[in-house]
Amino acid sequence: MKRQSLDNPSDTSLSRVDGAVKVTGAATYSAEYAIPGLVHAVLVTSTIAKGSITAIDSREAEAVPGVLAVISHLNAITVPGWPAKKLPAERVAAGTALRVFYDPLIYFDGQPVAMVVAATHEQAVHAASLVRVTYQQEAHQTHFEKNIGQAGIPQNVQRAKNSPFQDYERGDASALRNADVRIEAEYTIPTQHHQPLEPHAIIAVWEAEDKLTVYDKNQGVKSAQGQLAQAFKLPRENVQVVATYIGGAFGSGIRVWPHTMAAVMAAKQLKRPVKLVLGREQMFTSVGYRPYTKQKISIGAAKDGRLAGIVHEGTGQTSMYEEHLERTVLASRALYACPHVATRYRLLPLDVNTPTWMRGPGDATGMFALESAMDELAYALKTDPLEFRLKNYAESDPERNLPWSAKSLRECYELGAEKIGWKNRLPEPRSVRRNGMLLGYGMASSLYGFHRHPSRARAVMHADGSVIVQSATMDIGPGTGTAMTRIATKVLGVNAKKVRFDLGHSALPDAPGQNGSSTIPSVGSAVHVACEALKSKLVTLAGEMSEKFRPGAEVVARNGKIFSSADDKDGLSYTDILKHHRLNELEVTEASKSGAERDQYSMYSFGCHFVEVEVDPLTGEVRVTRVVTCADVGAIINYKTARSQSIGGVVGGIGMALMEHSEMDHRFGRYVTTDFASYHIPVHADVPSIEVYYIDKPDVQANPIGSKGLGEIAIVGVAGAIANAVFHATGKRVRELPITPDKLI
Amino acid sequence: MKPFQYLRPKTIAEAISMAADYPEAQYIAGGTNLVDLMKRGIASPSKLIDINHLPLKKIEHRYDRLRIGALALNSDVAKNKSVLSRQPLLAQALLAGASGQLRNMATVGGNLLQRTRCSYFYDLALPCNKRKPGSGCGAEAGVNRTHAIFFAGNGFGGNEKSSCIAVHPSDMCVALTALDTEVVINGTSGERRVPFKDFHRLSTLQPELDTNLQPGELVTAIEVTDNAFAQHSHYLKVRDRASYAFALVSVAAALQMDGGRIWDARMALGGVAHKPWRYWAIDLMLRGQAPSEKLFREVAEHEMQSAKATTQNAFKIKLTSNAIVAALKAATGIS
Question: Which CATH number is correct for B1-54, 3.30.43.10, 3.20.20.70, 3.40.630.30, 2.40.30.170?
Fold first, then answer.
């Protein structure tokens, strides 16, 4: 495959192609489809963390005008893909997704136990408050710290010898004992929730007995289609999933959750289209979270600043019924040139719902610990934290012993340092004040693995010169349609106004879900090759019209025309080509995937963040006053939307570092911070000037567009950079997030 | 939300008579708190008496006092010229509260009557003596990082059926507590006036009651008496994020200074008690003194001697002390 990269587009990037419909309210989100005969569902959730339902009294609820049904395990339909129910019900072993309304067993507080369906949303809400559920309660364990002794090697890892989560050692990590300088510390990340502003919502419509359409907020229409088809034992094509517009997700929409199944089951049972929108408080127990994680890092270096060893241990929480694994300790193997490294990863099952991937999963957690430890060690060595990182710069992947496909982290460091004015920073902690505030600067590195999944795209040229490009990819916010339009315009040389990109529908050509920063590398490549194929087809047709375009001719495309590179004049327009051949349209569908390069190179996105903070010496309030974020993700496809994505990641990192914290009352095993008054996310006043810079150098090994993922590295490392800046400002090392005033006074 | 009937009285008298006729009815003004409470099932009035259109929006200065109608919007009060020139502390406190959107809806009367943000109060599945008297205080041995450190008679608990460690969420009320304020109340037996310090209640015995307002009574105005604090007042709010968060601790400091000395001092603290906490002794401690950080530290620590932490909020004792120092420094202009 011919590899080529896109030009630097920074001066001509596109505004969001869907910007106007979003800001005018014309975009239709999952809960907004006007389906005739639609009825409304509201969940009733458990108020105990473990036990079983002994009775459900729904008489009062059923008496509310408009109520059509109260659905629970007592009367729900049988899902064909689920095993026959056992009597008495048995608790599942780890590895079984929660089956909603299946049996009376309760695995966590907030588990759906019943659902009221009514003619109006208000009737359903009121009736749901009248459903009386009684339980036989069992002792529950939700307290991570009290149960950490029960943590162990995940069963998934025990079964899979090649799992990346196996205990790892290179060199001899015990060499750490002899390091000139050594530190050891524990780091804690509390449970944090995605909480996109748009709550999860679904409209389930059975078009026929064996035909299902769902309008569902999720991050992968193809994967949801597959999961629903499997559950209801239907041919894939009989299930269609639509998710055209999504109001943020951050990982909460990667899988099909119990509430989605509940709505589909209710629609089947009642033979009516059913809409279910989760309440904000239900969002805390329905769609996953970043798991509470405890880490320990021992790290040492020689006096000259070379790393002697890193031992990184991490334990995350999971549910009793599923194992959720994440990359918590893995970055420590690859980021620095360190001869002796050991990592260990454990899971602690608790009576809670299953966590899931949240932006920068594992890496955001692990890099907070690693980059805090690197900073602490730099101070212990009396070395500049940035110099210390440069001294241990990995020129090749020390874990896989492979060359990097491309790595411009050094350039990121240099650019970031210059922009924030790092060289003017006084090294002594708590030594500088500005307007009475303690001033501090900190930095951290960022990295995230390269993910490219097989993808397909269709490109269609119409007689009027307009182009439609399609793929079943998603846009949870980064501006997928805009970036793909950009790729198409570049290849085909047409104005962006002539291009329409369709996404978010399972009937479109196969694409992965939007996760793991994989969309641009995967789908962007497919769109690129599809548009290239379309162009070649057009050139072939042109060759039948003019000598200049005979096979082998070099061609450039611009303004809806192709030109021979030889003379670069008298171009032939696409419309003329189609007209000449009496074609209404010309269509190609192409696939794209990784090849042998994945075994020859180690591929990562890299970056770094530089942060300035002010801390009130009396009240301990931290305000991030400036952020410079630099990323090396290969070629930048569309600068404007990329920049927005980087800014969003930094804002998420500010939340993670300073405020986000889901707190549970363990006596009840129940979250008590279940609204935006108590679960704090950053507001505008918390978000300073964020300067975004890209190296914008194509990674020619990665894929045809030379571009790697950006979504995750935008947040990975931000919390560490902020914690490091807080240390520089105050002299206090906070190792337990979030960094709230109580930890600094 | 339980279905309810919507009523729209034409006059204040009619509103009061409706409230008297229907004991389960509630007045609604901006609704920025009541609607949330209704959605969560914490308030379930059978009737809502909408008072938004009643003539209670006026802000005027007459004789020796500023009178603010109960339906004046928080945002309008905060930018009113008389308020800014005569009672800047009140404007500062208002702008420290909620968000622009909420201040555009929320009224002064509603601000007085907003209910605690204690998580246990908001969750029907958890115990709460304020929501359900006798069910216990969930916060006392639970998640109480943001809860009270000042209590009636220097104590709390001891009675699990009635204890409550929730805090009052308002910023505006903290400023009004520091100033000389009266609440004007109308009811079936006419108008009465209550000094601001007696309007809200501490949680002793009946935590379900936030105020001394009688059933059916309507707050019609507040009146703030003129003072000489405008040059040396400061509202300091410490919170977990820069805006749109309830106070961990707030301090309303109002001082009168002359010749480099303090001649009158008022202070109230927010986020520390079941109602805005007036620091009564501060005038005695500061009067005649020249401002200094050392003096302010002594003053702060004096009041904190009677503070008492629960399981997670010991930090608030030090934080409040520091916040008092910071607010006094800001009010007196010392660095």
Answer: 3.30.43.10
Contacts of B243 in chain A (CB under 8 A): 683-686
Res A6: pLDDT = 41
Say how far apart CA A233 and CA A274 lie, in whole Å.
20
A12 pLDDT above the threshold of 90: no
The residues of chain B that CATH labels 3.30.43.10 are 1-54
Q: Which residue has the tokens 């192709």?
A: A562
Looking at chain A, the number of H-run helices and the number of E-run strands are: 19, 29
Cα dist from A449 to A453, A511, A601, B56, whole Å:
13, 19, 12, 62
Instruction: Supply the pLDDT for residue B157.
Output: 53
Q: Is A93 helix (H, G, I), strand (E, B) or coil?
A: coil
Tokens describing residue A345: 């990863």
Q: Domain B232-332's class?
A: alpha beta
Q: Phi-psi bin for A156: left (phi > 0), alpha (psi -120 to 50), beta?
A: alpha
Which pLDDT does position A5 carry in this prediction?
A: 35
B3 touches chain A (CB under 8 A): yes
A673 chain-B contacts, CB cut-off 8 A: 119, 143
To the query of whether residue A554 is one of the catalytic residues in this protein, the response is no
Q: What is the mean pLDDT of chain A?
A: 96
Kindly name the residue from A326, A399, A614, A712 that is annotated as catalytic: A712
Which contacts qualify for B42-47: CB closer than 8 Å, 24 or more apart? Answer: B42/B115, B42/B121, B42/B122, B42/B124, B42/B131, B44/B1, B44/B2, B44/B4, B45/B4, B46/B2, B46/B4, B46/B5, B46/B22, B47/B4, B47/B5, B47/B6, B47/B7, B47/B18, B47/B22
- DSSP letter for each residue of A623-649: EEEEEEEEEE-BS-S-HHHHHHHHHHH
In the predicted structure, residue A213 carries a pLDDT above the cut 60:
yes
Choose, out of A130, A672, A744, the residue to mutate when testing the contact with B (most B CBs < 10 Å). A672
> DSSP secondary structure string, A454-492?
-EEEEEEEETTS-EEEE-S---SSS-HHHHHHHHHHHHH
Report pLDDT digits (tens) over A140-162: 999 999 999 999 999 999 999 99
* Residue B205: pLDDT band with limits 50, 70, 90: confident
Q: Name the band, by pLDDT with cuts 50, 70 and 90, for residue A9.
A: very low
Tokens 């990295």 correspond to A447
Exposure of A234 in the CB half-sphere (CA atoms within 13 A): 21
Contact B235, B323 (CB under 8 A): no
Element (H, E) at B232: strand B232-238
Shortest distance between the Cα of A21 and any Cα of chain B, in A, equals: 24
Query: The dihedral of CA A229, A231, A234, A235: what is its sign?
Result: positive
Selecting from B244, B325, B335 the residue whose C-beta is nearest the C-beta of A683 gives B244
**Strand order from edge to edge, sheet including A433-434:** A433-434, A437-449, A604-615, A622-632, A689-694
Q: Roughly how many angstroms between the first and final C-alpha of chain B, as a whole number?
A: 52
In chain A, pLDDT over 70 holds for what percent of residues?
Answer: 99
Q: ∠B145-B150-B155 over CA atoms, to 5°? A: 105
Burial readout A572-594 (b: 16 or more C-beta within 10 A, e: otherwise)? bebbebbeeeeeeebebbbebeb
Q: Can you give the pLDDT at residue B159?
A: 64
* Cα distance between residue A221 and residue B180, in whole Å: 62
Q: Where in chain B is the domain with CATH 3.30.390.50?
A: 232-332
- Residue ranges and CATH numbers for the domains of chain A are 1-32+402-451+595-745 (3.30.365.10), 34-139+198-247+253-286 (3.90.1170.50), 141-191+293-393 (3.30.365.10), 453-593 (3.30.365.10)
Local structure of residue A382 (DSSP, 8 states): T
pLDDT higher than threshold 70 for residue A95: yes
